[in-house]
Amino acid sequence: MTRLSLALFDCDGTLLDGQHTVLAAMRDAWADHGLGRPDDDRVRGMIGLTLHDGIGRILPDDAPADAMDVAASYKRAYRVHREQRGAVDPAYPGMAACLDRLEAAGVLLGVATGKSLRGLNSALAAHGWGDRFVTLQTPDHGPGKPNPDMVHRALAEAGVDADRTIMIGDTSFDMEMAVAAGVGAIGVAWGYHPVAALNAAGAERIVDDAEVLTDLLLARLAAS
């Protein structure tokens, strides 16, 4: 069994329930371009991808605007919800304690997310988590999920080998990225993709409770 040194977490759908702000901003962006209202399930399904890629997947073929224009509207709306309306993405139950226990045990913590670095820093700061992670990986400086680039950069920044790293996420994109990068892949069942999709994408285990997740990760740490 691999001994764990780096626990690399997805953000939205894994650490934080970011769907509410995402859905609100996407509705505003759709309205800006006369597109009516986007399907909430399809929006949740694209969370984790880069914004441009995700919007491109759900934008109607006959839309009067392209994905770049809608993405620009989304970014403006997201900032309004964050900075003017005070939107805060709640942490999933038990995840703060999970980070506490892992950190106390000497596990390095990181994030690999489809959010922008600005959005990620804002979301983490709202929970006082801004200085807890040794590496923060976003698509700002390279390709997004499921490309393994973010994991490779995280390993380099943390100084940890792939066989001592586990990616924890709620989407098939997270699992595909982990498999492509040669790191462990643990799925969480409380996020935005169905368990069957996580399994099909290569998840080693699926957990439905933060305490179970923590125990599993600490068991990996203790393994020889």
How are the elements arranged and paired?
Layout: E1 6-9, H1 19-32, H2 40-46, H3 51-58, H4 67-84, H5 95-104, E2 108-112, H6 117-125, E3 135-137, H7 149-158, E4 165-169, H8 172-181, E5 184-188, H9 195-200, E6 205-207, H10 210-222
Parallel strand pairs: 1-2, 1-4, 2-3, 4-5, 5-6
| Record field, number of beta strands | 6
- The radius of gyration is 17 Å
Sketch the topology as an H/E string, one letter per element: EHHHHHEHEHEHEHEH
Number of domains: 2
Name the beta content range: 5-15%
What's the CATH topology label of the largest domain? Rossmann fold
Entry summary:
Helices cover 47% and strands 11% of the residues.
Explain what the structure shows.
- The longest helix is centred in the middle third of the chain and has 18 residues, at about 65-85.
- About 45% of the residues lie in helices and about 10% in strands.
- Helix 5 (about 95-105) packs parallel to helix 10 (about 210-220).
- Strands 3-2-1-4-5-6 form a six-stranded parallel beta sheet, with helices on both faces.
- The protein is α/β, with parallel strands linked by helices and about 220 residues long.
- About 45% of the residues are buried.
